Amino acid sequence: MGAGKFDTPMTLSAPSVSLAPTGDDETVYLPQAVVWAQVRPRRVAATPQAGRLQETTGYTVRLRYRADVLPGWLLEAGPLRLRVETVVDPDQRTRVLDLTCRQLEEAS
């Protein structure tokens, strides 16, 4: 595993649920670390939304092994925001993780 594969610095954030002033649960994301990752587009899916097709891009992100990464976490690099859907240790040797991610819309 060469360091050259991990060429994108990304902020890894964990969800935290707190009580909003309105009394509702509010999810905020707390930065955990900046990690170096290999980001590869996986698929583009088009789904109907509000009378038109909405494209969603899926990604596979590989990073060095961390025991704390779970589905629901966020990865961010500039305008790219990804929600982690699955976490896999591909060879069960705690060297790397392969994360299946879904791109989120940019915050407005």
TrEMBL record:
Which species does the entry assign this protein to?
Answer: Pseudovibrio exalbescens
Return the annotated region ranges for Disordered: 1-23
Q: What is this protein called?
A: Head-tail adaptor protein
The record's listing under InterPro entries reads: Phage_SPP1_head-tail_adaptor, SSP1_head-tail_sf
Q: Which NCBIfam families match?
A: gp16_SPP1 (TIGR01563)
Coiled coil start-end? none
